[in-house]
Amino acid sequence: MNLASVRIITDDLDRLVVFYEKVTGVSAKRPAPVFAEFVLPSCTLAIGHSQTVHLFGAGSARAADNHTVIIEFRVHDVDAEYARLKPLVDEWVQEPATMPWGNRSILFRDPDGNLVNLFAPVTEEALERFSGRL
């Protein structure tokens, strides 16, 4: 089994698409006006307008109501990403810090309030744990 994608449901698709285009540096693919995808080497980040929710069954997802998931991107230089994104991000949860498990990390909220973590393994143990992964 391979993780194919993570999907965010939003009431403002265009706002989130623009935000994640700036964060990832990747242009979104828009196969439908209510859906966008960021196809990355390791996974796809999908964003669907709340109008798409009924296709999966009523009440299956609510826009801007995530309190349990962190969307994580592995980057080369966390501190450089922090400097680049500082003007774009309205809510920083954590400035650059090295976590007990060996990753350097920044944590912020996207415009819908979803948590986003940019991280890089920096300790020998963390680098080993991520060897062979994209």
Automatic annotation (TrEMBL):
Cross-referenced PANTHER family: METHYLMALONYL-COA EPIMERASE, RING-CLEAVING DIOXYGENASE-RELATED
UniProt entry tagged with the keyword Zinc-finger: no
Keyword line: Metal-binding
PROSITE patterns: VOC
InterPro entries xrefs: Glyas_Bleomycin-R_OHBP_Dase, Glyas_Fos-R_dOase_dom, MMCE/EMCE_epimerase, VOC_core
Gene Ontology terms describing biological process: L-methylmalonyl-CoA metabolic process
Source domain of life: Bacteria
Protein name from the UniProt record: VOC family protein
Molecular functions per Gene Ontology: metal ion binding; methylmalonyl-CoA epimerase activity
Domain VOC: start-end pairs: 2-121
SUPFAM superfamilies: Glyoxalase/Bleomycin resistance protein/Dihydroxybiphenyl dioxygenase
Keyword Metal-binding tagged: yes
